[in-house]
């Protein structure tokens, strides 16, 4: 069984942060990636992969800078 992975792009890091996901379906993996992005204040995008197949790319909505 293949493992879903999430790569989180950041405003402050040049190398994406990688997390294995517990998900067993594409939709669960997408939701888990969205939750991970919420934990990373500098996240700008997350990419979910299963093996070499891209499942989803999620981008943050730019907001006002503080």
- Tell me the helix content: 10-25%
The total count of strands amounts to: 4
User: What would the principal axes of the Cα set say about the shape?
Assistant: globular
Count of DSSP helices? 1
SS content category? alpha+beta
Report the biggest beta sheet as strand number plus sense, adding barrel if it closes. Answer: 4 strands, antiparallel
Q: Beta fraction of the residues? A: 35-45%
N- and C-termini, Cα separation: 44 Å
H-E order = EEHEE
Q: Which sequence of strands runs across the widest sheet? A: 2-1-3-4
What is the topological layout?
Blueprint: E1 4-10, E2 17-20, H1 26-39, E3 43-50, E4 53-59
Antiparallel strand pairs: 1-2, 1-3, 3-4
Describe the protein's architecture and organization.
- This protein has 66 residues and is α+β, with helices and mostly antiparallel strands.
- It is 21% helix and 39% strand.
- It contains one helix and four strands; from the N terminus they run ββαββ.
- Strands 2-1-3-4 form a four-stranded antiparallel beta sheet, with helices on one face.
- The radius of gyration is 12 Å and the shape is globular.
- The mean pLDDT is 91.
């Amino acid at each position: 069984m293949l493992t879903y992975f999430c790569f989180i792009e950041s405003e402050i890091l040049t190398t994406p942060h990688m997390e294995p996901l517990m998900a067993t379906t594409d939709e669960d993996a997408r939701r888990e990636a969205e939750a991970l992005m919420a934990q990373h204040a500098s996240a700008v995008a997350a990419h979910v992969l299963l093996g070499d197949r891209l499942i989803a790319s999620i981008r943050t909505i730019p907001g006002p800078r503080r």
